[in-house]
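Quality-control log, excerpt.
Job 1 of 2 completed; input and output follow.
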Amino acid sequence: MSDTYDVIVIGGGPGGYNAANRAGQLKLRTLCIEKRATLGGTCLNIGCIPSKALLHASEAYEDAKHHFAELGVVVQNVAVDLPRMMAHKDKSVDGLTKGVEFLFRKNKVEHAFGTGRLRGPNTVEIVSADGTTRSVTGKAIIIATGSEPMPLPGVTIDEQQIVTSTGALSLSSVPGRMVVIGGGYIGLEMGSVWRRLGTQVTVVEYLDRITPGLDGEVAKHFQRILAKQGMAFKLGSKVTGCEKRNGHVQVTIEPAAGGTPETIECDVVLSSIGRRPYTEGLGLDTVGLSTDNRGRIPVDRHYQTSAKGIYAIGDVIAGPMLAHKAEDEAVAVAEIIAGQAGHVNYDAIPAVVYTAPEVASVGKTEEELKAAGIAFKIGKFPFTANSRARVNASTDGFAKVLADATTDQLLGVHIIGPEAGNMIAEAALAIEFKAAAEDIARTSHAHPTLSEAVRGAAQGVGGWAMQM
């Protein structure tokens, strides 16, 4: 292995490994450093991928137990085999992390396992698990170290009964009762997994709504659906402490505005109040770098920090903490380092909540457009009027299209319904191309498909939805 590189990437997650692969494709000598024993970062190891494996498996279980009979499919003696479900999850993770190693070999990218730390301009020290160190130099250094769960005062994590998303992915048994602290994407996804498997789930959210950042109308509809499924909510509430007692956990809750506290007893607490950039121990001070008040590393439009030759992408910089956002920035920064014109359109980055039904959005919400003083038109189409959703017995939700009132340019699309995460790609592409709502409305969509609901919503912007 060399000690001198064109590009050194600190972090082997979606941002880091994609930056390394793109740099390798561009014929730059590249090294990727990962502190875990496997590549893939939080996403592949303890985040996006294992959670989706459990979401899929638990949804299949719930369908077989409660919904297949509606379709004339009778399944008897349906049961949960949790060890086998966890084994499937682990096998999926193992295959995908090994896939990253394959891509590195394909693109001639070197990798090293250990903790990377800046040691002055152009220099990174790698400390391996056995304590040995190695110093490497790079013309360009990319910080892509991702994020970690946000701690909550009064809540001590043990990853057994009081867990983060990491522990929630590996529970050894189905808990009878679970309190989820935080009504965001991760908490609702993991809460959905365990609710389907038989857990009584209560979500405690500090704000007066769930999924802050989502379109308000969608969020209200989403909460009603989750409540109908059996999930309980305590909004406008905060958790002030958790105490393990007699094999259970006593969770102390009080109104966010202040008031009389109450105690909820449960078996497992999932703390999911958000994530913070992982920059601890990176040696930022050795190159004169500091973080902002939210722990993020400031960068310019080319992802370069104030230290020449040092770049940052993904969760450690401003913007949504999404794996695909980091991937887009990874490609852009590698191309910029190679002398090309890398770019990310942040208005065209979708977000998805992988519950059932799914919730997906791209572009602006109604609230954002109103705050900016932008006049807009709305088109909506319910899945109850979509023929494919009807025959699939999956009619919860709707598609919603927001377009400029004068130009008809697409400004935002929000979908709550079956396969919303797949359907949002059409809207992201349309926003990327600066399409009008009419462009979607007049584009032929196969019939019968769920995506016709998006077309129906786009037609609704112009007042001529055809199927309702």
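Job 2 of 2 completed; input and output follow.
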Amino acid sequence: MFLGQYLHSFDDKGRLTVPARFRDSLAEGAVVVQGLDQNLMVLTQAAFEVVYQRLMAMNLTDPAARALRRLILGTAFPLELDSAGRILIPQNLRSLVGLESEAMLVGQGDYFEVWAPVPWKDQETELHDPAVNAQRFATLDLSTR
């Protein structure tokens, strides 16, 4: 499970150190894709397979389905942890979301997001606004039972 926030730096070869707590979940490999915000998503192989099957089941005549497939499958890149616990994120994906020397890794349960620090700070500011949250989350059921 991916939980928490971690700030890590890219090395000179574009490799990103994965937090030690995340590494066991990536042992079987992972896939990085363009996220739905100004970020990347790193999914375990199992989580990506679920997303892939859902994408493949979508109606090809639906323009939104085709666009979503392009967005996710067209940017998908397989990842493997190296012996030092790093992943290599392709330059085109790093450029797409403005990643330069540092990245914020944000756990999302079954996957984690990779953000450039400035857009993440903007996202965090928005997430900490109680008035906005009261309206945004009012219709969602976040029950513990």
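Post-run check on job 2. The longest strand covers residues 102-107.
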